[in-house]
Amino acid sequence: MIYIITADSNSISTISTKNNTPLGNEIIVGVKPIYMEIDTIQNKVYVANAGSNSISVINGITNEKIGKDIVVCESPLGIIVSKSKNDIYVANSGSNSISVINGTTNEKIGKDIVVGENTHISPLIYLESMFMCQIKAQILYPSFTNNNTKMDADIPLV
To answer: How many domains does the chain fold into?
Structure first.
């Protein structure tokens, strides 16, 4: 199955890879869906809705939206699923922060982690560490989070 973001209609479409035909109706999500991530272990699809500052969760088996959208900070643009911890990390570019969501309860965990400017998440989780990068003035500022705490180190781009 293929999931396709249809931003103009605030929905997700599904297509069968067996016969290249649409599967059911569009799944209505939040305003201006911009990014999605699939949790293959929990069979969930997480959709970042930049226009409504929220995350929609879709059941990957039934293709139905699960509950209400999860409110996060301004302009969520990226998502990473930590399969070992079952936490969902959301990069909010408008507020330069990371929101953490419990993948079992689909509830936001604690306060957002402020990480700097132009926040994006790199799809890399290594030994329970997540790497987020911000680029500003030709310097790469990786932020390493472990147990939802922030540590910084600067790497000049020369």
So the answer is: 1
Contact call for residues 44 and 35 (beta carbons, < 8 A): no
Domain that holds residue 27: 2-113
Q: Residue type at 158?
A: V
> Cα separation of 41 and 29, whole Å?
22
Which strands sit side by side in the sheet containing 70-71, from one edge to the other? 33-39, 44-49, 54-59, 70-71
| Beta strands per DSSP E along 40-153 | 44-49, 54-59, 70-71, 76-82, 87-92, 97-102, 107-108, 113-114, 120-126, 129-136, 139-146, 149-152
**Highest mean pLDDT: which of 28-32, 38-42, 138-142?**
28-32
The CATH number assigned to the domain holding 33 equals 2.130.10.10
Give the three-class secondary structure for 150. strand
Map residue 129 onto helix, strand or coil.
strand
Report yes or no on whether pTM surpasses 0.70.
Answer: yes
Cα–Cα distance measured from residue 11 to residue 144, given in angstroms and rounded to the nearest whole number: 33
C-alpha–C-alpha distance, residues 121 and 30, integer Å: 21
Inside any domain, residue 8:
yes
